[in-house]
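During the no-cost extension, the postdoctoral fellow (Dr. R.K.) reprocessed legacy sequence entries with the updated structure-token encoder. One reprocessed record is reproduced below for audit purposes.
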Amino acid sequence: MNGLYALKPWYATRLAGIRGALARRGVSPDALTAAGVASAAGAAAALAWLPAPLAALPVAALLAARLAFANLDGALARDTGRTTRRGALLNELGDRAADLVVLASFLALAPLWLVGVAALAATLPSWVSLAGAAAGAPRLNGGPVGKTERCLLAVVAAATGWAVPVLIVLAVGSALTAMVRLGRLWRELGA
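Re-encoded structure tokens follow.
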């Protein structure tokens, strides 16, 4: 049950030319991480300040950029031999910051308690994956509501104005994703 994450290899292949151009220009993987967070912040501003459906196009474009930067930063680091532990830390922090800044924009559209629950739930899959990796298991990604699905749900909210239903789906789906990952890790680490 990998969700849209199953498309990552196909997507990474499509970005290979961009990755090569960035490598030739000496662009830092950390700069791409920062650009991803900035793209998420732009999407958040559009979601909070533009009415539906006018928000849909800028939110979709900026979140597509956020996902592209999230794909490119680590791949560029590996391609150019610039992987570092500090870069891995920055990548994880950037991913969490990008998710949370987008969810914070829902404060203009939905009750605080629901935004808080959705934000907490959205972080659970990563917590589980990182805890599993710390215990020696491979890093798990994907699931019913992973990073890509959360971006898609934000676009749905921007297009429809259905902030409350989207946050409910995001919270429940993220919690389910965390449980699926935890189950996989529990079985793997128990072996």
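DSSP finds eight helices and no strands in the chain. The mean pLDDT is 95. The remaining legacy entries will be reprocessed before the final report is submitted.
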